């Protein structure tokens, strides 16, 4: 995407639950991203998960994360 749209700002949130599942601490993850020259910072964001009419989606944020609705989640934001 960056090659096609070089001025685009892209951010990806890696949730704390995903880091825990992967077995890596937030600090170690940030350090590994810095080695690859990627900007990363711990953040807390509010998200609103819409209910699926078919119930065919899977969401996991930890702490009751499989239900629809607004919630605050923490993690690492990677900015490209």
Mean pLDDT figure: 85
Cα gyration radius (Å): 15 Å
Most strands sheet: 3 strands, antiparallel
Largest sheet, order of strands side by side? 1-3-2
Helix tally equals 2
Secondary structure category: alpha+beta
Can you tell me the number of structural domains? 1
Cα distance, first to last residue? 10 Å
Task: State which percent range the strand residues make up.
Answer: 25-35%
Instruction: Determine the fraction of residues in helical runs and give it as a percent range.
Output: 10-25%
What would you call the shape?
globular
Low-confidence stretches: none
Strand count: 3
- Please trace the helix and strand order, writing H or E for each element: EHHEE
Short structural summary:
The chain has one domain (11-79).
Protein described:
Helix content is 21%, strand content 34%. The chain is an alpha+beta fold. The mean pLDDT is 85. The chain has one domain (11-79). The protein has helices spanning 16-22, 26-35; strands spanning 11-15, 39-49, 69-79. The protein has two helices and three strands; from the N terminus they run βααββ. It starts with 10 loop residues before the first strand and ends with a strand. The chain has a three-stranded antiparallel β-sheet with strand order 1-3-2.
Features:
80 residues, 34% strand, 21% helix, alpha+beta
Secondary-structure map:
Elements: E1 11-15, H1 16-22, H2 26-35, E2 39-49, E3 69-79
Antiparallel strand pairs: 1-3, 2-3
């Amino acid at each position: 995407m960056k090659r096609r749209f070089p001025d685009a700002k892209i951010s990806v949130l890696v949730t704390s639950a995903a880091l825990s599942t992967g077995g890596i601490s937030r600090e170690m993850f940030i350090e590994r991203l810095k080695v690859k020259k990627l900007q990363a910072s711990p953040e807390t964001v509010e998200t609103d998960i819409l209910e699926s009419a078919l119930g065919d989606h899977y969401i996991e944020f930890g702490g009751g994360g499989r239900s629809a609705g607004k919630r605050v989640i923490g993690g690492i934001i990677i900015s490209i």
